[in-house]
Every structure is written in structure tokens, then in C-alpha cells.
Amino acid sequence: MEQQEKIIKLLAEFFRRDTKRIQGAILIGSFGRGEGSPASDIDIELLIIEDKLDIDEFTNDVIQLFNHTEESLVVKHTIWLANQRKLALYHGPQLILTELYLYTQLSQFNKYFLSSRLTDLRKCILVDRQDLIRQHLEYILTLPYDNRNDLIRELITNILFQLESTSSARRRNDAYKFYFIYNITLHALVRLVYVLDGKMEYNYNPPQSIVNSDLSSTMNLDKSELHLKNLINFFLAQLDRIKNVETVLVKKARDFCQDLLKRDSIS
Hints:
- By secondary structure, this protein is of the alpha+beta class.
- Helices cover about 50% and strands about 15% of the residues.
- A 6-stranded mixed sheet has the order 3-4-5-2-1-6, sandwiched between helices.
């Protein structure tokens, strides 16, 4: 964790100096909560002035920042994920990961800030030139985050749609599409189990989740019927756990699954 703390300190100083491109920066994730470990990634959201930012120039400047530090901090590799506006930095021989999210609007901070469950803004705000970030974060902390019943409803409807898509891929003998969509459905099911277990904090990507081997996906279409049947039965078992809420939706979900099994002759 000592190496990550050094990286955070160097980046914070760099962002403070970079007045032309950086308006603000916040540390999110486990380090933002003060719970970082040697295995933790570093996650930072930046508020940038877009017309002042050339991503190649910015990346090179960040690389140069670490070039004269100890070997464990040197940036060995970078990946720019344009669709996510995320710059991934890999430091030293251990490839310690720093993720920089380059945003142009304060509203883009909301998703990952809220999912990080940060409460002490003094610890997570690295740069805030005009006090705009603090004001925005204080406001969104007053908003509700992930109403449990709404999330259950969203997950059930998503699972139903993905189950039909998975089944359709099997009917079309598209092995890769079956494998791919099956895994999307399974992830939504893992999230549903997590929420039904009374947890909400990391529902977007539940940590340490254990999935039975009979729920794993396959590209072998000869075995796809059994895998899909197992997935549907697992979903039905989770519906049994939902008491006193969404009774109409649960019944519709059960009927949908039964019709899906009949349509595709899955016994």
C-alpha cells in the first residue's frame, strides 16, 4: 500500500500544478474511503477543461512525472479507453493500476462516487479550484442511492430479457453469442443474489462471489440446453426468496420462464 500512497501523492501534486487542464480531482474507491490495501487499484476522477486537453500530451506528461521516481512507480504501460474516458496507468514490475477518469461535467462524477460510498469529502477531494466539486458532492450525498425494491425490479426485468436473448442464440446455433449473453445474464443473477442477501454496497460488481460450476457458460451447443435450464432454475429459486414485494412482477417472471422453457422444449 505504501507504493499506492506515493503514487496518489505525486498525482495530487501534479494535478494541483496543472491549472490549465485540471479543474478538480477526487480520489474514489477503496483509497477514497481510507480502506486501500496493497492489492487495491487507485481510482481518481478528474474534472478537465476539454478544449485544453490533448490526451496524448497529457498521457506523456503523466509518464514523465514518474520517470525519475523509484522503479516500482514508473509507468510501464498505458491504455486509453475513449468510450469510458478512462486512462489506465500500470506502474512498475507489479503493474500497479491507476485509473484516471477524465470528465468534463460534474454529473459524470456521480456514478462511481456514489458506488464508492464515500462520506468524508476532506479525504477524497484532491483538487477543487473553485469549490464546485465539494458543493456538488455534498448535494448528491443527500440523494437516495439504489432503492432496494427498485433495484430488484430492474434486475428481474433485465434477467428476463437476457434469458430470452440467450435462449434465442441457442436456437440459432450461435455458440459464441450464447456464451456471451449467458455470462451477462449470470452476472445480473449474481447481483440479484447479492441484493437479496441484504447487501447493497457493491451491487454493481459483487466481490468474492461464489458461483456453482453447474452455472458456468459453455460454447458447446450440445450441452447448452442443460446449462440454460440450470440458469433458469437458479433464477426461479431466487424468485422464491422475494417476499411481500413485487408479487405481480414475480408471477409474470415465473410465467415468462415457463413459456420460455416450453417454446424451446427445455425439459
